[in-house]
Amino acid sequence: MAKQFTQRSSKPTLPAADEGLTSHAVLGATIGNMLEFYDFGTYSFFAIQIGHAFFPAKDQFASLMLSLATFGAGFVTRPIGAIVIGSYSDRVGRRPAMTASFVMMSAAILVLAVTPSYDTIGIAAPLLVIFARLVQGFALGGEVGPTTAYLMEAAPAGRRGLAVSFQPASQQIAATAGALVGEMLSLTMTSESLDAYGWRIAFLLGACTLPVGLWLRRALPETLHRPEAPALAVEPARKLRASRRIMSLGLIILASCTIITYVTEYMTTYALNTLQVAAPLAFATTLVSNAVGIAAALLGGWLADRAGRRPIMIWPQIAALLMTYPVFLWIVESRSPMALLGGLGALTLVGTIPYSAFYVGMAEGLPKSIRGGAFATIYAVAIATFGGTAQLIVAWLTHVTGNALAPAWYMLVATAAGLCAMLMMPETAPSKIRAANTRSP
Predict the structure, then answer these.
(1) 222 pairs with which residues across the strands?
(2) Domain spanning 235-427: which superfamily?
(3) Which is higher by pLDDT, 113 or 392?
(4) CATH number for the 10-223 domain, one of 1.20.1070.10, 3.30.70.20, 3.40.50.620, 1.20.1250.20?
(5) Which of 364, 14, 15, 31 is nearest to 222 (CA)?
(6) Which of 78, 288, 313, 400 has its CA 20 to 30 A from that of 279?
(7) Residue 88 has pLDDT above 60, yes or no
(8) Tens digits of residue pLDDT in 238-266
(9) Mutual orientation of helices 144-154 and 78-91 as an angle, nearest 10°?
(10) Which residues contact 17 (CB under 8 A, 6 or more apart)?
(11) pLDDT tens-digit readout, 149-203
């Protein structure tokens, strides 16, 4: 049975001559990323209501902290899922790995949506929710690597950057959708209704993607055995060393990307609690940064196809490094809509571009036999280590120092570390490699 499933999962395979990457394939590959970040935004928006439902406590702060800790539990199983599902994608195929992770993600979000409250079934309620978060973390750990590998392998050599950029762009789209759903429910429902069942509606909307996502992913052609454009010939020993180097640099760059992303997501709370601006302006910062992030991710991939991976990683990263402190200084001193929306929007635009180029560059730099597993593992470790702590560190720094510029310091360190690693990354664009081969005697 396992053999038959493997054979079915690996067909049909895209031939080398196929130059198409349809919108169906892009949506099918990225729908899991969308569900992941939709769930992230929705859980964050309704963390208080979820705490009331599953973690009742006399102290409301304790209830909220238990809710957030449960959300963080999913980070623990991400590296495990990355190793298991990522390596499965390298052995069996991208499509079956992506399908398995999506089914587990959808099932977990459905369990979270329909689990009765603590008042109804007692201790079983929080235990079920924690189990769902662990399963979802496992599934999410194995989502990004196979998805990125699939988009790179399915795209024509000259459009790989744009194709892979839909991976980070889809995350921003989903985060925006989650914020909009939360905003609409909060505006149309009473606080009592939100507390009782409104938050469940938001999760059920995410669970509704299961049949669509399953249909899209099961129809995807397999890319694992598709011949790739010839790369620069390298001796096996040197190739192994090069792969290890790329993975080490990739971990630093993904850590940098993760810190910047999560600090940016923290800006609504920062604007409310630290800057003391009006709530509508604070919430608008997240929507604007997400919208700009979508455009910047796609722009970064498009530019990487034309100028190569390294220039589009390095120069915008330098610009972001130079812009970070002045932008935050402007925001803190003026606390105006122009500074918050315009300044943060400009910083998000410039700071997001390099990472689309990096995504495709790292995928191209890894051998196909380990591409899905290695990318997934490095991504999961970076997210688990730095994503789960970024907002806590920023909040702690701001509290301890009493300085509203603390987020800028942390972002500066992350941006500088990412830039150093980007400077050491090799160029992997097929057109640049062919040009280098042509010039070589």
Answers:
(1) 13
(2) MFS general substrate transporter like domains (1.20.1250.20)
(3) 113
(4) 1.20.1250.20
(5) 14
(6) 400
(7) yes
(8) 666 778 899 999 999 999 998 998 888 77
(9) 30
(10) none
(11) 999 988 888 889 999 999 989 888 887 887 788 778 877 888 788 878 888 998 8
435 has a pLDDT exceeding 50: yes
Q: How far apart are CA 189 and CA 270, in angstroms?
A: 26
* Buried/exposed 141-178: b ≥16 CB within 10 Å, e otherwise: bbbbbbbbbbbbbbbebeebbbbbbbbbbbbbbbbbbb
Residues in the chain: 441
Cα separation, 305 vs 151, in Å, equals 14
Whole-number pLDDT of residue 3:
41
Q: Which residues does 407 contact at the CB level (< 8 Å), separation at least 6?
A: 263, 266, 267, 270, 328, 394, 397, 398
Q: DSSP assignment, residue 366?
A: S
Q: Which two tokens stand for residue 91?
A: 């052995």
pLDDT tens for 148-158 read 999 998 888 88
Handedness of CA 72, 298, 331, 406 (dihedral sign): positive
Dist. CA 183–CA 42, nearest whole Å: 10
Q: What burial class does residue 325 get, using C-beta atoms within 10 Å of its C-beta: 0-12 exposed, 13-18 middle, 19+ buried?
A: middle
pLDDT digit string, tens, across residues 305-347: 999 999 999 999 999 999 999 999 999 998 888 988 999 999 9
Task: Give yes or no for a contact between 160 and 152, defined as CB atoms under 8 angstroms apart.
Answer: yes
pTM metric for this prediction: 0.83
Sequence-distant (6+) residues with CB within 8 A of 267 are 282, 285, 286, 289, 340, 344, 407
- The domain segmentation of the chain, as residue ranges, is 10-223, 235-427
